[in-house]
Amino acid sequence: MTYCVAVRVDRGLVLLSDTRTSAGVDNIGRFRKTFTYENPGDRAIALMCSGNLSITQEVRTSLSRAIKESQADPEIETLLNCATMHRAAQIVGDAMASVQQRYRSTIEMQGSAADATLLLAGQRKGGKPRLYMIYSAGNFIEATADNPFFQIGEHKYGKPILDRIITPETTLERAAKAACVSMDSTIRSNLSVGMPLDLTVIEKDAYSFRMRRRIEADDDEFLSISESWSAALRRGFEDLPTILD
Amino acid sequence: MTYCVAVRVDRGLVLLSDTRTSAGVDNIGRFRKTFTYENPGDRAIALMCSGNLSITQEVRTSLSRAIKESQADPEIETLLNCATMHRAAQIVGDAMASVQQRYRSTIEMQGSAADATLLLAGQRKGGKPRLYMIYSAGNFIEATADNPFFQIGEHKYGKPILDRIITPETTLERAAKAACVSMDSTIRSNLSVGMPLDLTVIEKDAYSFRMRRRIEADDDEFLSISESWSAALRRGFEDLPTILD
Description:
2 copies of one chain form a homodimer. The first copy, chain A, is of the alpha+beta class. Chain A is built from 5 helices and 12 strands. Chains A and B meet through helix 3, helix 4, strand 12 and helix 5 of A and helix 3, helix 4, strand 12 and helix 5 of B.
């Protein structure tokens, strides 16, 4: 399993992913699920991955290869030179569709799932911060003011706190805290989501990354959020009125 | 969907169920999911149902018919005269297996799911309070001190608070509150779980029901728990340390 959450607020974008992969509980791995593409002063873009790992790695490889090849041939369109974030989502979607076309039927023939879902977030100069969810078929949807966050992977345990906290007016600091609480709840409840984490923050109109931070299992700040939240829940529960007289 | 939670603590049993059924979001119904069987002074037993409604109704009908027929023929074994709670679980499991045997293949042939899961909780004189989860095949598992609660239906949203609060030492009052918070979180996040609720409480060694309460959508005590919990979460969030400097 996987848990990735991306939030788009007025002041920018916050992304948080775990690193655990599992093909059954007896086959656990650790893979980074957040990948960044930056041309400082022009654009900062982050991609998060869930689903079949061979599929998402292949998608990333094709995106990176295009960037490399574009150094010799600037005609090649890539995440780093495309005109808009919408076009970037199309490029990623096309890469997904192409990889699915190549492998899906053989993967399914041997009984595995080829599905994969990606979150693409970023801003290029002249555009707004954008957040997209890209499906296996290469189609995608965009986050809006009414729906300012997307989750992929194990989304249920961590959704209630996001529903309560996140609005377009939420600051980046609060959005990052809410993402951490959401991840903490998910890690507690689903063994297939695990530390370390990758926290990525893109501030509006900076066209660069404000934060790309690996949060290890012994990270003091994350532990402090986790413990404060536990204590707040316990206190809050003690103060509830009774229903059984 | 459905959400039912049953808790077995040292002091007794607490059960809470919603009443919403859905065959698609355009086909919503309301059905009671908690059913009680009582012989005051001898036993109090409660059954909660999830899954295919035609299956669970048929199971209940056969259990009730046996109780009625046993008035004329006391040789017929029923939930109200069987020797132990374990035997009661077998009786319910046998009824489930028999109904599945009759309908499962035809239900599946037309593309629907025949799965159903039941929670059976109660105490008979001379025995301990027991809680069982009964599967479609008629087999079952029992709650233990290590795993003092069971959930059926949409279990994820409401699990974290139970994990944090429920132990065998938890009082019935706290267990009822935790069940309400768990249900409140689930109702907020899943449209297919809805009010009104049914709260059932069996106190240890009482052999009768301490509470069988229908909680309507405008129930003051439930609303008060829901609002206090929201306020506690908001306050707790405000007090969290920062992760983004």
